[in-house]
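Long-time lurker. I teach an intro course on protein structure, and each term I like to show students one example going from raw sequence to a predicted 3D structure in token notation. This year I'd like something fresh instead of my usual example. Would anyone be willing to generate the tokens for the chain below so I can use it in lecture? Attribution to the forum is fine with me.
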Amino acid sequence: MKNLSKGLCLSSVACILSLVAIIIYAFVLYKLPVVFVFLIAAVVLGAVYVMSGIKDMAKPVMGIIPWLNSVLTAGALVAGVYLMVNQIGYVIASLDTVDTILAFIIFEVVTAIAMIVNIVSSFMPMGVAKKGE
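-- Reply from a regular --
Happy to contribute to a lecture. Here you go:
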């Protein structure tokens, strides 16, 4: 098996985290469809990026994909909060329990981690690692 570079491995992790975020968001109380669109786009672009790196077909323009994925996951973070603001207020005011926003909190954490991993991977080399990398 080929040795994959650190950037490619981190991009794979970010792609998987975005996929997990999609699954978790399905259990959030109030959903906004654009969050699914942002995350699905991040997963698809991440998969294209990883596959092009594995097959050594990476072009210099492909380096923008981790940045684009971090913007997409940031958009999912912000859009996800939009419908849950009232519910968060109810929990803070002790009118509801934390159980109602637990899936939302987990979703936000996983999506934030995916965004950070995408940002970090954009600074790493892409493709098959050469000896000494």
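Some talking points for your students: The mean pLDDT is 85. The helical segments are 6-25, 33-54, 65-92, 102-121.
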